[in-house]
Here is the input.
Amino acid sequence: MDKNLEFYFETEQEDAKLIYTTGFLWGKINTKLDEILAPAGLNLSKFNILMIIKHVGKTEGIQQNEISRRLLVTASNITKLLDKLEKDGLIIRTSKEGDRRVKLIKITSDGSKLLDKIWTKYTKTVKKIMNGIATSDADYVNKVLLDWLGKI
Here is the structure.
């Protein structure tokens, strides 16, 4: 067992152990994924935003509030990330035809090429992280976590 986890498993709070374990697991997964995204100038948050813009927004674009809804964060939380992605030339903001108040976010050619470039390494890393976890176990844990998420 990871030495960082031992302290948490010595606690009297049985109900907190799953929260600690989930937090540590996410921290390790995030670190592994950020390691492969960093050379491309991305972190997991920027990567996820670009993926949503590319695959949900497609050529039409997507509103900022829809990106926020899909990432389960407030629109204000991603504004700075979108500003950085726009500054880096990976996205553009345009007005919706017929309603200039509505801003659509679209991925640029450079943004799309960047995702294509790192996709293979990203998927290999995800597979490596999941190595040793049986599909049936992963399905069960996923179901439990989704049930738990629905109750929070």
Observations:
- The helical segments are 3-9, 17-37, 44-57, 64-71, 75-87, 109-130, 135-151.
